[in-house]
Fold this sequence. Notes:
Elements: E1 3-7, H1 11-22, E2 26-31, H2 35-45, E3 49-51, E4 64-67, H3 74-83, E5 87-91, H4 98-111, E6 115-118, H5 125-135, E7 142-150, H6 170-186, E8 191-198, E9 204-213, E10 216-223, E11 232-236, E12 239-243, E13 252-257, E14 260-266, H7 275-287, H8 297-314
Parallel strand pairs: 1-2, 1-4, 2-3, 4-5, 5-6, 7-10
Antiparallel strand pairs: 7-11, 8-9, 9-10, 11-12, 12-13, 13-14
Helix pairs in contact: 1-7, 3-4, 4-8, 6-8
Amino acid sequence: MTKWGILGTGKMAAALVDAIRExxxxxxxxxxxxxxxAAAFADHHRIPxxxxxxxxxxxxxxxxxxxxxxxxxHLSAALPVLREGVAVLCEKPLALDAAQAAAMADAARSSGAxxxxxxxxxxxxxxxxxxxxxxxxxxxxVHHIRADFGFPADLDPAGRLADPALGGGALLDIGIYPxxxxxxxxxxxxxxxxxxxxxxxxxxxxxGVASVHGDxxxxxxxxxxxxxxxxxxxxxxxxxxxxxxxxxxxxxITLHRRGEQAGAWDTSYPGSGYRFEVDxxxxxxxxxxxESQRRPLADTLEVMQWMDAIRERIGVVYPGE
Length: 321
């Protein structure tokens, strides 16, 4: 049984506790910046070991650690664990920027530790079905990708989503999903344009990206203001595949040709949607792999570089950059 630790005590930390257990793993320890917070989380989730620092988990002999801190602390939380040779599953985005992400990748490779971004979308049944259908030529040659992710968010200036010191902004929090979808299907962009609505705290509240990947055009957006469709459509010369809401863990894919539905696939599942990424970590560790073949670090780093370039274009800068 794979023995896990959790760094952070927020919503995603709680979700991964359930997912790890569902995937057959053991959650042995939790670390937080405050002993009281760690103790409360551990008591609520029946976790035996609890610590008031992130660093304490590095020397416990764990098999893997899930980093669930705010974006600004991913690097500092993950490095001590990686340097001990312990596998890390780090919440997306892997880091604030590509330089930090590269530092994490270097640390993992130096110590022989497994590292993967927790981009749960790429492990979903819907995503695997989408890739298979495209590979089978169901819609011919892909020429257009549209994906939007948006919801009216709590924009408390001191909160995680709006505070630049915490790595806030729509791009890093939810824009990473449309970008990753496009990147996974057609690779990095040859060129792109980006526009944004910048909020009073200096982070992007809405961002739109139009990108060209060979002869594929992508229309990608993320918003903390709009109640968006949360759907994605991949269109080709022979039809289009629609990932129904919410596209990053879509329960249904439909095929449309000339305005008519021509096929449908049920991609729903019971239980936690995060268990699929945990299953991938378990498979990789059992096989002695240092990276996931489905979510290699090179892909993560390319998306991070793309997001850096978008932030430069729209004028979003984080403290210390």
